[in-house]
Amino acid sequence: MRLLPILTFLLACSSSTTAADGPADAKAEAPQAQVVASWNGGEISSTDLDDTISTELTKLKAEYVTSSHEARQQGLDALIGERVLEAEAKKRGLDGVEALLKAEVNDKVKAPTDEEVQTFYKVMARRMGGRSLEEVRPAIVGEIQRRAFAERFEAFMGEMHLAYEVKLSLPKPDMPRIPISADDDPFIGPEDAPITIIQFAEFQCPYCGRAKEVMDQVMEKYEGKVRMVYRDFPLSFHDRAIPAAVAANCAGEQGQYWPMYDALMSNQRALAESDLTKHATTLGLDLDKWNTCREDPAQAAEVQKDFEDGTKAGVQGTPAFFINGIFLNGAVPLEQFTAIIDAELAG
């Protein structure tokens, strides 16, 4: 098999690092306000326009800053790898990086055993389209080896980082922040925690259910340092989102918001009236008070207020998070939360 294509990627990334710094005038002073539209008796300035779409502009800036930083990180990783591998090849008296990778990666990865091939086939059988093991064996062998090469390459680079005492000091970017209120919505974690995560979500959204698992990890990892506020953002095409939100809020009136939250997020396909009543019964709620609360128009109005506040802040789908005002969209992995939180705690 040819040498790992990862090296080609590594070298290619390094050539794009300067582009990640952004336009040449990115640090230039902001232009003065100018008239962008006028009519008899009135005009609109660029400041008026920017104020109107300030939230969207902030989101765009955040996306640019994040993408630029990621590009610089990838470029830095690539450049470090290139320089360190060149130094190691020279140190060993080898004829270039290819020879080094052949010795440390290719030659150390063994061909998969028949047992490994069969296990892989069983795990991936549904994706094989009914093809027999022998028909897909070459593809399976190739995929197992590709993964093994990637794993060995990553391990070797880790060894090189330790051997050459690589230290990273790429500064974290100052992320644009969107002002968003926690309102009087339910939260977990210390009220004075240094990190406040405001989550906009709803109980019928499957991605919100996945995000809950990550948020549970965040709260455990940063115990005592994070306050998570939950605000409702019912999507129009989910007919049980609002009833579920009201059911949770009314459970909160009896001090059972988070147990109801857990029950609803864990049973997103069980949101019918009978299901909500079953959850309330299981939690030992006073059903008469709970039902009276659910009929109060103020409860639906509170859910609608959350939705409107989220919309003003630029939320378009669920889940959406604001980590000390830094926008994070979607059911993203734990690593994306930790990157922002660690930077906030360090700053």
Keywords:
13 helices, five-stranded mixed sheet, Glutaredoxin, 7 strands, 10% strand, two-stranded antiparallel sheet, alpha+beta, 347 residues, 2 domains
Structure description:
With 347 residues, the protein is of the alpha+beta class. It has two domains: 5-15 and 48-163, no CATH class; 187-346, 3-Layer(aba) Sandwich (Glutaredoxin). It is built from 13 helices and seven strands. The protein has helices spanning 5-14, 46-52, 54-92, 97-104, 114-123, 133-163, 206-221, 241-252, 257-266, 273-282, 287-295, 297-312, 334-346; strands spanning 35-39, 42-45, 187-188, 195-201, 226-232, 320-323, 326-329. α1 crosses α3 (54-92), α8 packs antiparallel against α9 (257-266) and α8 (241-252) packs across α11 (287-295). The chain is extended and about 80 Å long.
Identify the CATH architecture of the largest domain.
Answer: 3-Layer(aba) Sandwich
Structural class: alpha+beta
Shape: extended
Question: Which strand order do you get reading across the main beta sheet?
Answer: 3-5-4-6-7
Rg, Cα atoms, Å: 27 Å
Strand element count: 7
- How would you name the CATH homologous superfamily of the largest domain? Glutaredoxin
Overall mean pLDDT stands at 89
What is the count of structural domains? Answer: 2
Roughly how much helix do the residues carry, as a percent range? 55-70%
Specify the biggest β-sheet: 5 strands, mixed
Helix run count? 13
